[in-house]
Specification:
Number of strands: 0
Helix content: over 70%
Radius of gyration: 19 Å
Number of helices: 10
CATH topology of the largest domain: Tetracycline Repressor, domain 2
Strand content: under 5%
Shape: elongated
CATH class of the largest domain: Mainly Alpha
Order of helices and strands: HHHHHHHHHH
Structural class: mainly alpha
Largest sheet: none
Number of domains: 2
């Protein structure tokens, strides 16, 4: 029997996990515009009052779903201060492996596909994805680069530009090709190699003077 892929919500408390799992299923079946809180609550076996108390509204449910993945991606950056370039490389590689692995999760690919499909009629889902996923990760990496640069572990440069360059080096065209279904999610070995290559390239771009 194939091993079930662990999802970003598996470690959440049961009620919260049930609501987010139901929300994902409804989202995939109905689209964001067609999803409604009554159906989500019914499938999660909770009352609408419980759902609203936990998340506020439909947008809040989706934001929580995206934020769970985003927080997992950022976890490697929330470590004690790095002491040298070797430790910096280790953190970036761990972050790269985690970020690319989360991005390639089937649930994340499916939500991104849905956002792209609905973009012509409404950009609300796209804005939620950007606000809850891309932007927090950009800011977290920006803050990390600013911190290690101040500690003298990175050469001169704009930390915001560094974060964009690292994402480009790490992801390449994988997100687009995954959404188009032209490639399968890369295996763990390839993800690790991409994270190592992106880290090496970034550190070469910003050598110590």
């Amino acid at each position: 029997m194939a091993k079930k892929t662990k999802t970003p919500i598996d470690d959440l408390p049961p009620r919260r996990r049930a609501i987010l799992a139901a929300a994902y299923d409804v989202l995939m079946e109905r689209g964001y515009a067609g999803a409604n809180t009554l159906e989500i609550a019914t499938r999660a076996k909770v009352s609408k009052r419980e759902l609203y108390a936990e998340f506020g509204n439909k947008a809040g449910i989706l934001e929580a779903l995206i934020a769970t993945t985003s927080a997992r991606m950022q976890a490697p950056l929330n470590l004690p201060e790095v002491a040298d370039r070797s430790a910096l490389a280790d953190v970036l590689i761990r972050y790269g492996v985690t970020a690319l692995g989360e991005l390639c999760h089937p649930a994340v690919i499916a939500i991104n596909r849905l956002a792209a499909a609905e973009a012509g009629g409404s950009s609300e889902l796209g804005h939620i994805l950007d606000r809850g996923g891309r932007e927090p990760n950009r800011l977290a990496l920006f803050a990390f680069f600013a911190r290690v640069q101040k500690a003298g572990l990175l050469g001169k440069g704009d930390p915001d530009r560094m974060s964009g360059q690292f994402f480009s080096l790490l992801f390449g065209d994988i997100p687009v090709r995954l959404m188009l279904g032209t490639v399968a999610p890369p295996p763990a070995k390839e993800i690790r190699e991409r994270a190592e290559a992106a880290t090496e390239a970034l550190l070469r771009l910003y050598p110590l003077s």
